[in-house]
Each structure stands twice: as structure tokens, then as C-alpha cells.
């Protein structure tokens, strides 16, 4: 089974072997992440650029080839922030239908509702996390950041999607290389406002565990650990101290894009927008330290992709039964 998540900055693939009778994942076959910058310029133009759609098509075409090579029988692709408001979204969805149809006729990307996105993200991100008490899963994307709070039983209590992301903040505010203190301050003001509004809707101050997932968090984990390259097995379930995170993000922010590219843990397509992402992470770290006394953040390599696979597997098991 295959899951594809297409966001503002990257498109990602997970292929997993699943036991048809039990619905349990047996083996992760492959997990890929390609920077395509689908949302480039969409914040100001309201449109997905033809070049961005083509970059995404090329990446998806390669993913579909992998699905065919591995005999994938079920696939679900979700698209998030970049496609929600684009005036030419039909061009994008027609492209996904043409590509995914090579695996399952009629398959097409779908923009899922916020509650469904939250449920799938929480299910995937907390799959391997052992936590006592309420958990918040935070997914920092390119165009938006999601906060999902779940209880001890693993049920989602509430979720909020905020209009702040690494690409969105970088395009709006961080125009200098490296960004100036004034640019960072302006972006941080927006981040703090979004975080305050999220806290008004969710019991963030009551959580016992903070789990960060998706590219910005996982990249920061790799840099904090000073890994020789991006190593998912070292990143998954890594526990980062607040002071180490803040010291690392401060260093990354004052580097030029070329200096960031030289870091083996940062993918080239993420180097120019990671600055915006670090401002979001700083605000998150400082908020939970002040409001909930939390000094550590757990980083999960698993996320909405794993949640999608779990959902597909349950559907298949139910059908087989």
C-alpha cells in the first residue's frame, strides 16, 4: 500500500507491506521526500505556477514508478495547504489523476478536511511514542502549522491549523540572506499571534508531551544531533532539550543559504526556507517551557503518511473479513 502527502514545500511517499488479514503493517518498503516547492509564490498570486505543477508531476511520476515496481494495490494521496485556495487547482488534480491512475484507475489526490488531517497526523506521529498524559502533535509545514491534542487513550481532543509555515514566512518576511533581526522580529510577531490563537482553542498548557513531526522538526533534530547526514533512524523518537534547540536554530538563522546547504543534514531545497521554520519552532519551545514546564520535545519521523497507511489497511482488513 502507498501513501502520498503533497504539501507546500515537498511531496512525500511511503510504501508499506500490509498483512491483508490483520491490517497490520509488516514492513516499511520505502519512504521518500522530494522538495518540489508546489506553493512557491501562491501566497501572493493565488495560483499554482505551471513550473511548480510540473516539478510535482515529475516527482509523482517517479513515485508511481516505484509503486508499480513494488506491486502496490491501494494508494491514497492527500494534498494540503498549497492547493486549498489556488484558483487553478483543477490543473493540479488532473495531473494527479493521470499519474495515480497508472496504479489504481480513478485515483486522484484529495484535499482532506482539517479534522481528518488532524486524526491521520496524530495516529501516525504517536504510533511509536510512549507518553503518559495528554500529547500535542505539531506539524510544521511549508504553508501551515497544525496543532493536534490527544488524550491518554489516543483520541483526538481538538486540532487547529494555523496559517504559518516555513515557506509562507520566508516569502513574506525573510528577504535578506541571511535575514535581518527586523525581518525575523516581524515574522516572529505573526508566529506568536498564531500560537496565542491556537492556545485559545486547544488545552495546550495542559499537555505532558510535545511531539514534533514533518520536515522542519526532523531537520532541526538532525542539526541538533550533528548527524553526518540526514539519518531517519537517528531522528525518529529523538528527544531534544529546549536549550539545545534554541541554540541550534539561532545558529542556522544567521547563516546564508549557501552555508546552510553545506550542512549535510539540510536538504538543498529546504535551505532557503528553514529560517522561517526555526522561528516557528522557537516560539513553540518557549511557549511550552513557559506554560507547561516542558523542557524536551520528541521528534517523530512518522506522520500523516503512516496514518494514511493505517487507514488503508483497516479498510482492506474490513473488506477481507
UniProtKB/TrEMBL annotation:
Superkingdom of the source species: Bacteria
Signal sequence bounds: none
GO molecular-function terms, A-Z: pyrophosphatase activity
All residue ranges annotated as the Ppx/GppA phosphatase N-terminal domain in the record: 22-308
Gene3D superfamilies named in the record: 3.30.420.40, Exopolyphosphatase. Domain 2
A Pfam family assignment: Ppx-GppA
InterPro entries in UniProt: ATPase_NBD (IPR043129), GppA/Ppx_hydrolase (IPR050273), Ppx_GppA_N (IPR003695)
PANTHER family tied to this protein: EXOPOLYPHOSPHATASE, EXOPOLYPHOSPHATASE 2
Protein name from the UniProt record: Ppx/GppA phosphatase family protein
Organism (species): Corynebacterium pseudokroppenstedtii
